[in-house]
Amino acid sequence: MGTNLYKVDEDYHQAAVSPNRTITPVTEFIIFGFPSLQQYQLLLFCVFLLIYLFTITGNGSIFSLVILVRRLHTPMYFFVGNLSFLDLSYATVTIPKMLAKFSMDLDTISYMACLAQMYIFESLAAVECLLLVVMAYDRYVAICSPLHYPTIMTKRRYLLLMAMTWSCGFILVLPFLISALNLQFCGPNIIHHYYCDHPPLLQLACTDTSINVAVGSTIGACILLITFTLIVISYIKIILAILKINSREGRMKTFSTCGSHFAVVSIFYLPLIFMYVRPKASYSSDVDSLVALLYTVLTPMMNPVIYSLRNKDIIEAFKKKIHFATKE
What we know:
- By secondary structure, the protein is an all-alpha fold.
- The protein has one domain: Rhodopsin 7-helix transmembrane proteins (Rhopdopsin 7-helix transmembrane proteins).
- The chain has 12 helices and 3 strands, in the order αβααβααααβααααα.
- Strands 2-1-3 form a 3-stranded mixed sheet.
- α2 runs parallel beside α11 and α10 runs antiparallel to α11.
- The longest helix is centred in the middle third of the chain and has 34 residues, at 111-144.
- Residues 1-21 have low confidence and may be disordered.
């Protein structure tokens, strides 16, 4: 199957440079997946199915607990619940299509569905960047100004922050979609990636993509670098505040929590910066597919463990719900 697809890809490229070519608009794309792992479709299906089930179960459980348990109706858990819902949505945009390809060779996606997947996925990624900034700010206020926390993080304020996070995430990515809609795709139509994304789509365009690359790199740099810098500043101030804690045990516990959070943030951000902040539309299917796994699959799976399942309040709430369920 892989050889045939590459042969079709070469034929399309030869047709594209021919002066007598007939331009036929692309109506659908072929998701090729992982080019070097085409012979391991069943193994890939099993691995990604387990990851998806774990991601859905973990994030879904946390999101439900935050809604159902009254003691979790606080700003911190409100943000954690939004992160869980975001990761659940994030994984659902990409993984089911991958599973369909690995199990039933359903590797085609329509032109509009491809652009919709790209826009929704990148919007959710932008929302997560902004949400991580809000969560870092929440922890900064809680640790550095604990006495003023209730007056600073009021219900009205954290609801407003969350509304702005979601709306800004989807608005900021609109130029990606608008610039992609202006491109012409006349062949090839094989996406050497496991979902529709901006860099591999630009490789398939038969028109000049310099504006698209400039728009993508500029927006990507603004969103990723600015939000990552704000998170780093917040954590630096948190660490300086932790160093003033007299209790060694308290310092170690807070350091451990912040260290885990920052590790997940780094795993999420660094691959995104590599993928989207580029001076040109360079693309390596094998390398970029593996890099993309870090923020599309690994981070949504890890977030429930790092942010929530190690949390005492979440664990107690989960045990109580299990206890009530077994009693009934």
